[in-house]
From TrEMBL:
Signal peptide: none annotated. Pfam families: HTH_18. It comes from the Bacteria. This is AraC family transcriptional regulator. SMART domains: HTH_ARAC (SM00342). One of its GO terms (molecular function) is sequence-specific DNA binding. InterPro entries: Homeodomain-like_sf (IPR009057), HTH_AraC (IPR018060), Tscrpt_reg_AraC-type_HTH (IPR020449). Residues 185-283 form the HTH araC/xylS-type domain. Keywords: DNA-binding, Transcription, Transcription regulation.
């Protein structure tokens, strides 16, 4: 597990300080990046991962990527905010590998880290807090590319500070207990590497040298999700990322995510997200 985590990559998109009122009220937000908040004054609410969190001054909050969330402020609050991409080798997500908490009491050092990150990246704030304005292909590409403008020392320090803040939310226990004989972390890596192929449960079972039934049973026991559902979820997540960060056609994205044909891809994507791929891309295009 520690070897896998050595490949953890965090990429800064935005950081800033905001004073927000009742206009901070957004629903049905699903982004390909994670969010970190440090609340300094006032109160607000966020909902994600089937939980509601009351923002409190002096606390840190994490919203994972590709998670349905909503945001609401009854009166007024102030926050430092960070948005970032995360990846653990072969397109995996660290959220699949470790247990997380989503609220943590901020230390004096945490507050210093936010301020220092803002000093290192003074031009990365959001001009508009509406996700529809900044959660789109053009904006994400532009903000990600700004990392190339950092000096080498500033880039390394930015990465280190992001990792330190992110570490506040990771619990020591692994998300699953790994059986050395049937290393299911390997099968997650295998899925990430071969997601563009016509990959099914039988292929994954063969990779683990198990029968399809036994593999499915053990996979669900370890990860709390059927392997077929996991495959579908990963394909939709990768499709969302490609829709937002590339100009690939819908047909090309269907092929790159292993759907086989565009109509099937469109049907499953809409069933999962409530929107067709074209609608998803259009609604999140630059306003």
């Amino acid at each position: 597990m520690q070897k896998t985590l050595q490949s953890l990559k965090l990429t800064l998109l935005n950081i800033g300080y905001a004073q927000l009122d009742t206009s901070w009220d957004y629903d049905n937000v699903i982004s390909p990046f994670s969010r970190l908040y440090l609340i300094t004054k006032g109160t607000a609410k966020i909902y994600h991962s089937y939980q509601e969190f009351d923002f409190k001054a002096g606390y840190l909050y994490l919203v994972p990527s590709f998670t349905y969330s909503r945001y609401h402020c009854d009166t007024y609050h102030e926050q430092y905010y960070i948005s970032f991409l995360e990846e653990v080798g072969n397109g995996l997500s660290v959220y699949n590998l470790k247990h997380f908490i989503y609220e943590s009491k901020a230390t004096e050092m945490d507050i210093h880290y936010f301020k220092r990150l803002l000093e290192l990246n003074p031009d990365r704030s959001l001009k508009d807090d509406n996700p529809k304005v900044y959660d789109n292909r053009e904006s994400l590409s532009r903000f990600e590319k700004m990392n190339e403008n950092l000096s080498t020392p500033a880039f390394i320090e930015t990465q280190a500070l992001l990792l330190l803040l992110f570490s506040r939310f990771i619990r020591n226990a692994n998300r699953t207990r790994i059986n050395a004989k049937n290393n299911f972390n390997d099968v997650l890596s295998y899925i990430g590497e071969h997601l563009h192929e016509d990959l099914g449960v039988a292929d994954l079972a063969a990779f683990c040298h198990l029968s399809a039934d036994h593999f499915s049973r053990v996979f669900q026991q370890k990860y709390g999700i059927r392997p077929s559902r996991y495959l579908q979820t990963k394909r939709v997540e990768r499709a969302e990322t490609l829709l937002l960060t590339t100009k690939n056609s819908i047909k090309e994205i269907a092929e790159k995510t292993g759907w086989g044909n565009t109509p099937y891809f469109t049907r499953i994507f809409k069933k999962t997200t409530g929107k067709t791929p074209a609608e998803f891309r259009r609604e999140r295009s630059l306003i």
